[in-house]
Design a protein that fits this description.
It is globular and about 30 Å long. Helix 3 links the parallel strand 2 and strand 3. The chain has 97 residues and is α/β, with parallel strands linked by helices. The chain has 4 helices and 3 strands.
């Protein structure tokens, strides 16, 4: 809802669908949750990196841990945002780019 007035938005109901969208669409930014049906967020991130190593990925999660943050950094996330403080932080992340 925050980004929709300013950007073309694609959604995916799970990690597998996100990988499919990432492979078929030229994306600038991907927001990714850690807890998704079918495939965990970090596994989805690994697959997306194989498809597009340069896309900016921002993890947004309510289930963050130090270990998941470290894994996200290992796979090149641009930012790691804990819910519920998403809207302001996401806008700041996008303007950093």
């Amino acid at each position: 809802m925050i980004l929709k007035p300013h950007f073309n938005i694609f959604t995916a109901e799970n990690g597998y669908a996100a990988i499919q969208v990432a492979g078929q669409t030229d994306l600038d930014v991907i927001t990714l949750d850690l807890k998704m049906p079918g495939m965990a967020g970090i596994e989805t991130l690994k697959e997306i990196r194989g498809i597009n190593p340069d896309v900016m990925v921002i993890i947004i999660t309510g289930y963050g841990t130090l270990q998941s943050a470290i894994e996200g950094i290992r796979y090149g996330v641009f930012d790691y945002i804990s819910k519920p403080s998403v809207s302001r932080r996401l806008c700041r992340s996008l303007t950093k780019r």
